[in-house]
Structures are given as structure tokens and as C-alpha cells.
């Protein structure tokens, strides 16, 4: 129980939620661990620097859903994901799913670039408005990703060789950035780029109206493309989603 309490304190340090908004109560962590789900901590020199909790999900016997992961030191997140994959494979699971805020640039690169996860669905306001230091009352749009554990691309990624994501020269930007604000760009191509703001978390603190504009236009651009059957192929230059329309995937 003392270790679960340390995890809760770590998460509180990261998210600084309002009262009653604890992302992982101690009792929940204990129940998850006792019933065979995933709860793990990453330590450096005896100090907790990251933690993750997840639960088994549909389809039965195949999937772990990673619900919450937080870290305070570089490298801890990657170490937790490598451990999570090994834990799942040892139990005969074949995939891990999780959600993340698609407007957070470093998370987009980490999940889709460094880990080679696949984006499968855009989820508008998945958790509703959340009052914490990161979300600050903004709508919690999330991107659902799937990590196929036996995919060669994933195996290469966890061994330090993530796949790249080249794009054709002149690929149009359907949503760009101009003076910190979202700006509609060009369409009309089978491959498109969707810009990710430089620092949405800072923008939520300094200019909430601009942050909400990003959320609204991003939902329209990326969410709209995925709703049409588009596919996120990866991250380009750590700053843009690369989205392929169905026609471009059929040609391949």
C-alpha cells in the first residue's frame, strides 16, 4: 500500500488535479494489481520516477488497455512501455491500447514515432472537461492508439530503431500554424499533413481562447480525416501528423 501511495503522489505532482480528481486512487491501484491487471513503477536510485496502470480489455485474452502513465524523468516512459510489452507478451496478449491528447506534440512523437503505435480512432471530449494543471478545463479530445506487440515495426522500435515516416515533396498542410494560431491550409491530396502546436499546455495557461481554437480546428481536421477512413501513417519532423486518405492506401 505504501508503494501505491507513492504512485498516487507522483500522479498528483504531475497533474495537480482539483480535489476529487485523483487520476488513480490508492484503492483502485490495489484492486487492479490484486486482480491480475498491470500496475508498475519505474525507479531510479530507489526513487519512483514513473508509474503506469492498466486493465485487461476486449477482445478477452488479447488486449491490455493502458489507462494512465506518468513520469518525471527522461527515459522512464520508454522503460515503462518496454516493460508493459514484456508483461503482456508473457501473458499471451497480443496488443496494448491507450489514449493520449493529440495536441501534445511530444506525446504524439513518443507514441506514434518512437513506439510505432497505430492511431485508430479520434475520440472527442472522451473524459469531458477535466480541471487539472495539464488540461485546465479544456475538452479532453483523445487519440486511441493500438500497439500490435508482435509487429516487426514495434519490435524494432523497442530495440531503439523506430521506423521513419517520409512524405512526398510538396505534401499539402491541411491544418497549419501561423503566429501560434491554427490556420486552414490546402486540401486535394491523398496524403496530408496536420500541424501540432508547439506547446499546447503553455497555451492553455497563457491564451485559453487560442488553445480552444486549436482544439476545435484540430478536431475538424484530424478527426474529420479519420472519420472518413483516413489513416495516420506517422509523425513528420516531430511536428505534423501524416494522414493517408483511403484512396492512397488502396493504391499501395
Helix and strand topology:
Blueprint: H1 2-15, H2 26-34, E1 38-44, E2 47-57, E3 63-71, H3 76-90, E4 95-100, H4 105-114, E5 118-123, E6 142-148, H5 152-158, E7 173-178, E8 181-184, E9 191-195, H6 200-206, H7 208-227, E10 231-236, E11 240-244, H8 246-251
Parallel strand pairs: 3-4, 7-9
Antiparallel strand pairs: 1-2, 2-3, 4-6, 5-6, 7-8, 9-11, 10-11
Form type: globular
Following the backbone from N to C, one meets helices and strands in this order, namely HHEEEHEHEEHEEEHHEEH
Structural class: alpha+beta
The major pleated sheet works out as:
6 strands, mixed
Helicity, as a percent range: 25-40%
Structure notes:
The structure is a single chain. Helix 1 packs across helix 2 (about 25-35) and helix 6 (about 200-205) packs across helix 7. This protein has a six-stranded mixed beta sheet with strand order 1-2-3-4-6-5, sandwiched between helices. Strands 8-7-9-11-10 form a five-stranded mixed beta sheet. By secondary structure, the chain is α+β, with helices and mostly antiparallel strands. The chain contains eight helices and eleven strands. It has helices spanning about 1-15, 25-35, 75-90, 105-115, 150-160, 200-205, 210-225, 245-250, and strands spanning about 40-45, 45-55, 65-70, 95-100, 120-125, 140-150, 175-180, 180-185, 190-195, 230-235, 240-245.
Summary?
Helix content is 35%, strand content 29%.
Amino acid at each position: 500500500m505504501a508503494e501505491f501511495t507513492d504512485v498516487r503522489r507522483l500522479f498528483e505532482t504531475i497533474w495537480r488535479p482539483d480535489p476529487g480528481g485523483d487520476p488513480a486512487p490508492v484503492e483502485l491501484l490495489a484492486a487492479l494489481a490484486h486482480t491480475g491487471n498491470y500496475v508498475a513503477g519505474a525507479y531510479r536510485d530507489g526513487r519512483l520516477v514513473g508509474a503506469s496502470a492498466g486493465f485487461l480489455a476486449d477482445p478477452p485474452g488479447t488486449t491490455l488497455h493502458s489507462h494512465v502513465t506518468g513520469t518525471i524523468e527522461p527515459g522512464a516512459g520508454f522503460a515503462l512501455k518496454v516493460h508493459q510489452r514484456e508483461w503482456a507478451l508473457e501473458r499471451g496478449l497480443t496488443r496494448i491500447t491507450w489514449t493520449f491528447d493529440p495536441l501534445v506534440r511530444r506525446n504524439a512523437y513518443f507514441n506514434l514515432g518512437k513506439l510505432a503505435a497505430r492511431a485508430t480512432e479520434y475520440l472527442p471530449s472522451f473524459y469531458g472537461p477535466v480541471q487539472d494543471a495539464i488540461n485546465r478545463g479544456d475538452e479532453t479530445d483523445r487519440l486511441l492508439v493500438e500497439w500490435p506487440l508482435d509487429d516487426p515495426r514495434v519490435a524494432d522500435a523497442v530495440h531503439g530503431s523506430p521506423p521513419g515516416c517520409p512524405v512526398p515533396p510538396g505534401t499539402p498542410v491541411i491544418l497549419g500554424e501561423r503566429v501560434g494560431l491554427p490556420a486552414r491550409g490546402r486540401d486535394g491530396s491523398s496524403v496530408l499533413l496536420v500541424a501540432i502546436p508547439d506547446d499546447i499546455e503553455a497555451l492553455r495557461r497563457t491564451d485559453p481562447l487560442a488553445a480552444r481554437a486549436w482544439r476545435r480546428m484540430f478536431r475538424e481536421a484530424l478527426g474529420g480525416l479519420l472519420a472518413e477512413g483516413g489513416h495516420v501513417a506517422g509523425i513528420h519532423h516531430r511536428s505534423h501528423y501524416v494522414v493517408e486518405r483511403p484512396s492512397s492506401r488502396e493504391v499501395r
